[in-house]
Write a structure and sequence with these properties.
The complex is a heterodimer of chains A (1010) and B (418). Helices cover 48% and strands 9% of the residues of chain A. Chain A is an alpha+beta fold. By secondary structure, chain B is an alpha+beta fold. Classes of the chains: A alpha+beta (1010), B alpha+beta (418).
Chain lengths: 1010, 418
């Protein structure tokens, strides 16, 4: 009776507090202790409650691992809920208690034989989550049985378990033949099993990029398409993503796949829709454009994309990022849907910015009025970032749709009248771009712009305004006053503004020489004598020299007609776009970067490319033909300004074949100068061994004329000196790049010693040509770092670095005695290493080092020692002995130490080799935050024996093709892509021994950033 | 696939974490907190964030952040859809999705999460499958369970898991068989200063509440199916029938579900039910401004406009509002600068008007941005696009069910610019 009453009491207690929050109530008496007692209770109910309490603590991150044995003891139960709870606990803590976890194995094995499929599935599911090596091997047999279980629920769970096991121990999975079983499941009768098998295989395939795990052939494709209609929404995503990897044999097959995938566009799950869009976008390439079905398909793609925009903002964001790609590839799909991209004031900012971007891409003559009205509306919003982007967008519209330019300009003027500071500044920056696109059309607005001179406080806007004043100096009466007012605070301005100011005043001087002599003197002296910025100084000298030698030539150079800026320079490069289209719906598509660039663990991701149908006129230039163009005959069709100039840089002085604005006054000279930029000067400065080939094809006995055109909007003209890039092509080549800055000192009179170009007289006052040679170009030497701390070596501290000096690798060390006693009898030895580095002689430390003394030692190295592959590749293990003891340390040498001086490949050989090396050996990396332009980069790299073989410019992106040769004869080929204004470089490396790529990339990064 | 999930409250505390693979330290959320700090408003936190080793994909719902961590290339939409599904499930189970309710039911939530994903792959996300495995808590059941020692966890294989119709369980039984459908249309529109429609579209949805015994096979036809050229369906709808006959044919899930979403954007079909005459201006001199708003009916298809409400996000400089409304009440929230005018029913004979003065912070410059008006309204018994259901038939079962269709038009994102 009494007991019954007690129980009732207890129950009432449970009943009164029904929620799980009771599991959090802690008692003062040591929670763990109490839980332990409850877990060992005889009463089932009490046990379960105790396990629940444990789980509750676990979910909020409390450590309850101490209860492991007690919880595992509850595992043998018929109560499914209790079993599940214990399993939950096991999964979380098995890793930290591997020995204890073994206790659970038997139960798993037993449960895998249970009559109830739910229990069998639960067991196989939980097993895979126990990430303990010792246990995994016991699980193979039960897993094998479950993969062949009669119940599809168990099979589909087992399929996922294979992926889990693979994550823990890939070798085991392969040895046990589970991969084959998994492949067989693709033909399973149950669609859910098929979907899970596909999902598991896809995940496994990600870590084996080259294994042919998902071997897709027409039969398997058919099975997948059948399963597609019947499996869950998530399964559909897996299957669609897998289908996207298939390459149909012909257009008929692609059409039939498209037809079977199209119904997925009406699915309620947006991820299914987007994956279906991916498959269709990819397979559409195969279809002939004149096919009716092609048109039908295009029409079908628009509505689902529009629908995605009425979903939650997070989904909208991902959809918009993808639509941005789709619009670039196939603008026709959404050309009538402009309005759905109009911004609502309560859209999250990330959605607003994306919509704006797409609006500009879709802007055309037909809808420009609407778009402009909207943009003007946005320019009065609250969010500053958004307003700025809206103002820029107006400028982009003007440049894109010529008919609208006038309206855009008047809209911008209206906005300037609002006098909102950031709107005005932004408007002036874009108006500068409009002037570049439509010269001599809208200059009437200059007066209005000048009224706002004072309110400009951002460098970009100031630079833009100064550019305008300089460019149109002849029409502005008080141009000299305006520029003079800027000159007062010259040294407080940013580099961008300083460079602009210098150029603008020189322009002014050339236009109105009589009244501005003093001003130009002033700015030249400010730039050359008082500034420590090498770019500024060098540009100043060039102008000075030009002006003092031949003002007529100066006029032709500085005031040369500028090429018009191109329309859309922010488009994604076609090869990248193709690759991204193949990755619609993935993270890569959200970041607009190739997957290989950022996804961890997918080192060798194969680059996907669209395969288009033969004969379709739309095929996009592939990278191979791209690099071919570098060395072969000039292309007959010159597509755009940027390309034209880019080709000129590479192709030796082939005169332009089409129209275009290269200067008509002195073409020979101009072209000669361009070639100098491309390669002549590099060899001139960088490589003393070769006689400097100066391919000047001009009769003028001129020194190299920099083709300096006035600064221009940073993102529109690839070949010009962009204000955003500190080093213009000019400064970088002639000796102002920071890399070279290390080579010679700061005083303005000390010009590069190696500069021995033929210079006609009268300039000696500017250029001190005393020293004719000697200095090799600034090789980057990493600063010394501590290799062996004194703590670990009984007071001996060794710091050091590696240097390559005239072909000899040296290990430069500072040995510091921090102990109390004298050290002597030094000797050094290396362990075997990847490139056979070994001391070429004994360590020369002749005198003992007394306490607190430090000594420098240089050890020449050879590369003929024993070889063993190290991890990382450039790791070097060193033993140093002295009278006290032997010490060991390891250090990493920059791989550029191993680059030979004769690493410059012939162009033809480069091209052939590039093609010859299989694509799997290509790896791509990103170098972030690097602000050099391509020429400066090329110079810097040359200092480390990385040689630029060719350069090409496509749509504002410079591509440098480079080669280097390692001491063991391995060649590494590189393609470095530099986008003006974008601090992120992309580098692709190809090498027969791809394992060196990582090291080479790191080396690039350190060289470029220092 | 999806690696881990963190639930984070408004204040930035992690109150629940779940890992489907190895455990990832909470510190990974620091990147998210940084972005949250930067975004100021929680709505503006970017949904996809890149960290050195992980990707963080998050949604913001009901004042909670659902933050998932992924390590490999995963379709982000898949993750976002799944996170919304988690939120839906929690709401479905406990009535609302709030921190306190999740904490009260933490073990159930944890069990649910475990059922929803396996190794990051979705396992069971259909509400009816989940409910068979883990029963939603009710007070009665808890009492019964504690008395009998039985549990909330089903021990049978859920029937929906493997059949080709995973959304429906077998053996459903009702004494009253009923199938009700709500056709709900939301008008999204932007109207400019002069009253011109800049953009308008209708987001339609057919919500179903079906409680039918056995395995009924329903088909629904429309008077004017040509309206529907942009649709997305619940997986139960047979797409082939739709393509060929423009009829919705389906075996319904049990209970409440969304049968179909549709989207009407063709301009001539989207009518704007009300017009707004507004004038909000701020004076150059003196810290004040004036506001005058009148609303009148435009095209209401002969029905009354109800639950009319105007919301205005005022510029920061607006300190207070001194207004008179001819109908309804207005409130001005000083902290959020939101003016709400709750009008109620629109009387075409006597148009509601709100007018008066706004006072600005003294010394503050005249606000540059003009506030937009957000309009809320409801019109019963009509779908503004004109969509009408013509027949609803049931096959496969013998009984006669109760059937019904209701129509409702609402304002979605209806903005008037000033």
């Amino acid at each position: 009776m009494q007991e019954w009453a007690n129980q009732l009491c207890e129950n009432r207690q449970f009943g009164s507090k029904m929620t799980d929050s009771k599991y959090f109530t802690t008692t003062k008496k040591g929670e763990i202790f109490e839980l332990k007692a409850e877990l060992n209770s005889d009463k089932k109910e009490k046990k379960k409650e105790a396990v629940k309490k444990v789980i509750a603590s676990m979910t909020v991150g409390k450590d309850v691992s101490a209860l492991f044995p007690d919880v595992v003891n509850c595992m043998q139960t018929d109560n499914l809920e209790l079993k599940k709870l214990v399993y939950l606990y096991l999964m979380n803590y098995a890793k930290s208690q591997p020995d204890m976890a073994i206790m659970a194995v038997n139960t798993f094995v037993k449960d895998c034989e249970d009559l109830n499929p739910l229990i069998r599935a639960l067991a196989v599911r939980t097993m895979g989550c126990i990430r303990v090596d010792k246990i995994t091997e016991y699980l193979c047999e039960p897993l094998r049985k479950c993969l062949k279980d009669e119940d599809p629920y168990v099979r589909k769970t087992a399929a996922v378990c294979v992926a889990k096991l693979h994550d823990i121990n890939a070798q085991l999975v392969e040895d046990q033949g589970f991969l084959d079983t998994l492949k067989d499941l693709i033909s399973d009768s149950n669609p859910m099993v098929v979907a899970n098998a596909v999902a598991a295989l896809s995940e496994i395939a990600e870590s084996h990029p080259n294994s042919n795990l998902l071997d897709l052939n027409p039969q398997t494709i058919n099975k997948l398409l059948t399963a597609l209609n019947e499996c869950t929404e998530w399964g559909q995503i897996f299957i669609l993503d897998c289908l996207a990897n298939y390459s149909p044999r012909d257009d008929r097959e692609s059409q039939s796949i498209c037809e079977r995938v199209t119904p997925r566009l009406s699915h309620a799950n947006s991820a299914v829709v987007l994956s279906a869009v991916k498959v269709l976008m990819k397979f559409m390439e195969m279809l002939p454009k004149d096919l009716d079905y092609y048109g039908t398909l295009l029409k079908k793609l628009a509505p689902p994309l529009v629908t995605l925009l009425s979903a939650e903002p997070e989904l909208q964001y991902v959809a918009l990022r993808n639509i941005n790609l789709i619009v670039q590839r196939r603008p026709e799909i959404l050309k009538h849907e402009m309005k759905v991209f109009f911004v609502k004031y309560n859209d999250p900012i990330y959605v607003k910015l994306e919509k704006l971007d797409i609006m500009i891409r879709l802007a055309s003559q037909a809808n420009i009025a609407q778009v402009l009205a909207e943009l003007k509306e946005y320019a009065t919003e609250v969010d500053v970032d958004f307003v700025r982007k809206a103002v820029r967008a107006i400028g982009r519209c003007a440049i894109k749709v010529e008919q609208s330019a006038e309206r855009c300009v008047s809209t911008l003027l209206d906005l300037i009248q609002t006098k909102v500071n950031y709107v005005v500044q932004e408007a002036i920056v874009v108006i500068k771009d409009i002037f570049r696109k439509y010269p001599n059309k809208y200059e009437s607005v200059i007066a209005t712009l000048c009224e706002h001179l004072e309110s400009l406080d951002e460098p970009e806007a100031r630079a833009a305004m100064i550019w305008i004043v300089g460019e149109y100096a002849e029409r502005i009466d008080n141009a000299d006053e305006l520029l003079e007012s800027f000159l007062e605070g010259f040294h407080d301005e940013s580099t961008q503004v300083q460079l602009q100011l210098l150029t603008a005043i020189v322009k002014l001087f050339l236009k109105k020489p009589t009244e501005t002599q003093e001003l130009v003197q002033q700015v030249l002296s400010l730039a050359t004598q008082d500034s420590d910025n090498p770019d500024l100084r060098d540009r100043g000298y060039i102008y000075w020299r030009l002006l003092s030698t031949d003002p007529v030539a100066a006029k032709e150079v500085v005031l040369a007609e500028k090429p018009l800026i191109s329309e859309e320079t922010d488009l994604i490069e076609p090869t990248l776009l193709e690759e991204l289209i193949c990755h619609i719906g993935t993270l890569a598509s959200v970041y607009h970067k190739p997957p290989s660039a950022f996804v961890e663990g997918s080192r060798g991701v194969q680059h996907k490319r669209l395969t288009s149908s033969a004969g379709s006129g739309e095929s996009v230039e592939s990278p191979d033909t791209g690099s071919a163009a570098v060395s072969e005959a000039p292309p007959t069709v010159i597509p755009s300004q940027g390309d034209l100039l880019g080709d000129l840089l590479n192709l030796d002085l082939t005169p332009p074949t089409s129209t275009g604005p290269p200067p008509t006054t002195a073409p020979g000279m101009q072209l000669g100068a361009m070639d100098l930029l491309g390669g002549g000067l590099d060899s001139l400065i960088g490589d003393e061994s070769e006689p400097p080939p100066i391919p000047l094809r001009t009769d003028t006995p001129q020194s190299p004329q920099p083709p300096h055109q006035s600064p221009s909007p940073p993102h529109y003209s690839p070949t010009e000196v962009a204000p955003g890039n500190h080093t213009g092509s000019l400064g970088g080549d002639i000796g102002g790049s920071p890399a070279m800055g290390t080579g010679f000192g700061a005083p303005p009179a000390a010009m590069p010693a190696s500069f021995n170009a033929p210079i006609s007289g009268g300039l000696d006052d500017l250029f001190d040509l005393g020293g004719g040679g000697g200095l090799t170009m600034g090789t980057y030497i990493p600063p010394k770092s501590v290799w062996l701390p004194a703590m670990k070596a009984k007071g001996l501290e060794i710091s050091g670095t590696f240097v390559r000096r005239s072909g000899v690798i040296q290990m430069e060390m500072t040995l510091n005695n921090k102990a109390m006693s004298v050290m002597s009898d030094f000797a050094i030895q290396f362990n075997r290493n990847s490139f056979g580095l070994a001391p070429a002689g004994p360590l020369q430390i002749l005198t003992p080092i007394s306490p607190n003394q430090s000594i420098e030692a240089a050890l020449p190295l050879s590369t003929v020692g024993p070889v063993m592959k190290m991890e990382p590749l450039n790791n070097l293990q060193v033993a140093v002995k002295n009278n006290i003891d032997v010490f060991y340390f390891s250090c990493q040498y920059p791989i550029s130490m191993l680059f030979l001086e004769d690493g410059k490949m012939e162009r033809q050989v480069f091209l052939a080799t590039w093609k010859d090396i299989p694509n799997e050996n290509e790896s791509q990396f990103q170098i972030k935050d690097c602000h050099l332009n391509s020429d400066a980069a090329s110079n810097k790299l040359q200092g480390s024996n990385i040689f630029t073989i060719a350069k090409r410019t496509v749509e504002g992106q410079d591509m440098l093709y480079q080669s280097m040769k390692l001491t063991n004869g391995i060649w590494v080929l590189a393609e470095l892509r530099v986008q003006a204004g974008n601090p992120n470089y992309t580098i692709s490396l190809k090498c027969r021994a791809p394992e060196v790529s990582q090291c080479v990339f790191q080396n690039y990064e350190t060289v470029l950033k220092n | 696939m999806i690696h881990s999930l963190f639930l984070i409250n408004h204040a930035g505390d992690i109150f629940l974490e779940k890992h489907w693979k190895s455990v990832i330290s909470r510190s990974v959320c620091d990147y998210f907190f940084e972005a949250k700090e930067k975004a100021v408003e929680p709505e503006n936190v970017p949904p996809v964030l890149q960290t050195p080793h992980h990707y963080l994909i998050s949604i913001y719902r009901d004042k909670l952040f659902f933050l998932s961590v992924v390590q490999t290339e995963v379709p982000p939409l898949f993750v976002i859809e799944f996170l919304h599904r988690v939120a839906d499930t929690i709401q479905d189970y406990f009535g609302e999705c709030s921190e306190s309710l999740i904490n009260d039911n933490v073990v159930t939530v944890y069990e649910l999460l475990e059922e929803m994903l396996d190794n990051g792959f979705p396992l069971a996300t259909e509400s009816n499958v989940l409910k068979e495995m883990i029963r939603p808590p009710t007070i009665l059941r808890s009492v019964v369970n504690t008395l009998t020692g039985s549990s909330n966890v089903g021990d049978k294989l859920p029937t929906g898991q493997l059949s080709s119709i995973p959304w429906r369980r077998a053996g459903v039984k009702y004494t009253n068989n009923e199938a009700y459908f709500d056709v709900i249309e939301e008008i999204d529109a932007i109207v400019d200063k002069s009253g011109m429609t800049v953009f308008a579209e209708i987001q339609g949805v057919i919500e179903a509440s079906v409680r039918l015994t056995g395995m009924p096979d329903l088909s629904m036809t429309f008077m004017n199916p040509s309206l529907l050229d942009d649709v997305s369906f619940h997986p139960c709808v047979r797409f082939k029938r739709w393509e060929s006959e423009r009829a919705l044919s389906f075996i319904p899930p049990d209970g409440n579900f969304t049968l179909m979403n549709y989207h009407v954007s063709s301009q001539n079909l989207v009518t704007i039910p009300v017009y707004v005459k507004q004038n909000i201006c701020f004076f150059e001199t003196g810290p004040c401004g004036r506001l005058d708003i009148t609303i009148g009916p435009k095209q209401t298809m002969g029905k009354t406009v109800e639950a009319l409400m105007v919301t205005i996000h005022m510029p920061k400089a607006v300190l207070s509002a001194n207004l008179t409304a001819t109908q309804g009440n207005y409130t001005y929230d000083l902290a959020t600068k939101v003016l709400v005018w709750d009008i109620g029913k629109l009387n075409p004979q006597k148009l509601p008007n709100l007018r008066g003065s706004l006072s600005l912070q003294s010394g503050a410059p005249k606000p540059e941005d003009n506030p937009s008006l957000n309009i809320d309204l409801k019109i019963q018994q009509v779908a503004i696009s004109g969509l009408k259901v013509s027949r609803l038939e049931m096959n496969g079962e013998k009984y006669k069910p109760f059937k019904g269709v209701k129509y409702l038009t609402k304002a979605g994102n209806f903005q008037v610019r000033t």
